[in-house]
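Title: Comparing notes on inverse folding

I've been comparing how different people in this forum approach sequence design from structure. To keep things fair, I'm posting one structure and asking everyone to reply with a full sequence. Here's the target:
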């Protein structure tokens, strides 16, 4: 009887021990799976977080680059410009940050539009220097003795660029004009070489679309540099440069905007009888 009881006890103990070991093995296995799943989820979240952080870093860098521009929202210019005038020859040198000559895209039939105005914004010239190689552009042109501001309107390939005024002194010049004597035109009708143009505008306010309409009095301008006309606008200090092209291929209508109030000078260029006439207007943006 005692042997039978001992045998029964032994078998029960073995069965119990087997159950304990089996249960612990199953528990350990489940816990191991949980640990592995948790680690994998953590790595996935880490990768996603890194991707988000990388994207945020890219956006911040892009925004930072834009904030360094001359104007809000514009990238910093990556082209160094130099303009000289000697004995009837205008010379322009363009270089990127590595001192290489940037390649320019054609814009309205030309790779370069050089706008030169006298410091008092009275004299105006729209010129097109020709490439001579190694980033050098030249043009023979007689400029009267005066102080000027030059504006290079170009489109370098794969490089950021902002048009900014370049001081140009011809002869002794007349020094800087501390106070501009621009007066707002009361009459926005001008006649040049017997061709009359009248300017009308929508309300001249800041940070809004403004339409400049030039009535050529029934005469359709001849195509000029791939358009019916061109308009250049400068603020009274000669610092803010805007070059506008027609909003339509059939009408001499131009659209622009102003970010600051003040007095602006507008030059409208229209070609008739094979000659380009330049019409100056002075307007005020309130």
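Reply #1:
Here's my take.
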């Amino acid at each position: 009887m005692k042997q039978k009881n001992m045998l029964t006890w032994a078998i029960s103990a073995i069965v119990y021990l087997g159950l304990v070991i089996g249960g612990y093995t199953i528990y350990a296995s489940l816990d191991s799976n949980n640990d592995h799943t948790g680690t994998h989820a953590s790595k996935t979240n880490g990768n996603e977080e890194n991707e988000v952080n990388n994207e945020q870093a890219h956006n911040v860098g892009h925004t930072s680059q834009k904030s360094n521009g001359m104007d809000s929202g514009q990238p910093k210019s990556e082209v160094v410009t130099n303009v000289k005038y000697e004995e009837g020859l205008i010379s322009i040198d363009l270089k990127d940050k590595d001192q290489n000559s940037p390649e320019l895209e054609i814009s309205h039939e030309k790779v370069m539009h050089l706008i030169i105005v006298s410091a008092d914004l009275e004299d105006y010239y729209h010129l097109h220097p020709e490439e001579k190689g190694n980033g050098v552009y030249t043009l023979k042109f007689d400029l009267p003795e005066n102080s000027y501001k030059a504006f290079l309107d170009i489109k370098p390939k794969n490089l950021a660029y902002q048009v900014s005024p370049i001081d140009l002194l011809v002869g002794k010049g007349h020094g800087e004009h501390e106070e501009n004597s621009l007066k707002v035109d009361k009459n926005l009708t001008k006649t040049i070489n017997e061709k009359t143009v009248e300017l009308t505008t929508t309300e001249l306010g800041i940070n809004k679309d403004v339409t400049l309409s030039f009535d050529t009095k029934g005469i359709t301008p001849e195509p000029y540099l791939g358009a019916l006309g061109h308009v250049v606008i400068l603020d009274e200090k000669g610092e803010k440069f805007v070059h506008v092209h027609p909003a339509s291929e059939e009408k001499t209508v131009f659209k622009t905007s102003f970010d600051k109030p003040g007095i602006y000078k507008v030059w409208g260029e229209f070609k008739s009888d094979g000659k380009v006439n330049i019409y100056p207007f002075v307007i005020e943006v309130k």
